[in-house]
UniProtKB/TrEMBL annotation:
<protein>
    <recommendedName>
        <fullName>TonB C-terminal domain-containing protein</fullName>
    </recommendedName>
</protein>
<dbReference type="GO" id="GO:0055085">
    <property type="term" value="P:transmembrane transport"/>
</dbReference>
<dbReference type="InterPro" id="IPR037682">
    <property type="entry name" value="TonB_C"/>
</dbReference>
<keyword id="KW-0732">Signal</keyword>
<dbReference type="Pfam" id="PF03544">
    <property type="entry name" value="TonB_C"/>
</dbReference>
<feature type="domain" description="TonB C-terminal">
    <location>
        <begin position="81"/>
        <end position="141"/>
    </location>
</feature>
<feature type="signal peptide">
    <location>
        <begin position="1"/>
        <end position="20"/>
    </location>
</feature>
Length: 149
């Protein structure tokens, strides 16, 4: 039954999100220019669009640890369906840095950890554009999962 729910989760409950890469060289790159554009002509997106992002999440998001770590109190506190809202910066070259979970207190710590882990594995995004030029853009996406057994 657990595998049935896990299969159902991976195919139906994943929504669009982002990525973070904590390797030192990539973070240093993002921190060189601290100006961030909030309003752009074209917003950043995962290369390949929503379909490719959902495929990436299906292959990489592993909620088993979060499911096994949650007790009945955690289900009452956070619920079975959880959404991690992730805010991050997409650099001019598509690297993602400065990642944070905006709603940390509304999701289980185990799911938060997994959402961040998956974001660290994400390939580059297409950057935001202003007048046809790539710019550092602050962006927000979410990852939703059903953590039921």
């Amino acid at each position: 039954m657990k595998w049935f729910w896990l299969g159902m989760f991976s195919s139906a409950l994943i929504s669009f999100t982002a990525k973070s890469d904590t390797s030192t060289s990539k973070i240093m790159h993002c921190l060189q220019d601290t100006s961030v554009v909030e309003h752009v002509d074209i917003y950043p997106q995962f290369r390949g669009g929503v379909k490719r992002w959902n495929e990436f999440l299906s292959r990489n998001l592993d909620i088993r640890n979060a499911i096994y770590a949650m007790d009945s109190t955690a289900y009452v506190d956070y619920g079975i369906k959880q959404t991690a809202i992730l805010e991050f910066t997409v650099c001019e070259d598509g690297e993602v840095c400065d990642v944070e979970i905006v709603n940390q207190h509304n999701i289980s710590p185990e799911f938060a950890k997994e959402a961040l882990r998956v974001m660290k594995r994400s390939p580059k995004w297409s950057p935001g554009l202003v007048n046809g030029k790539p710019v550092r853009t602050r962006f927000r996406q979410s990852v939703t999962a059903v953590l039921g057994e």
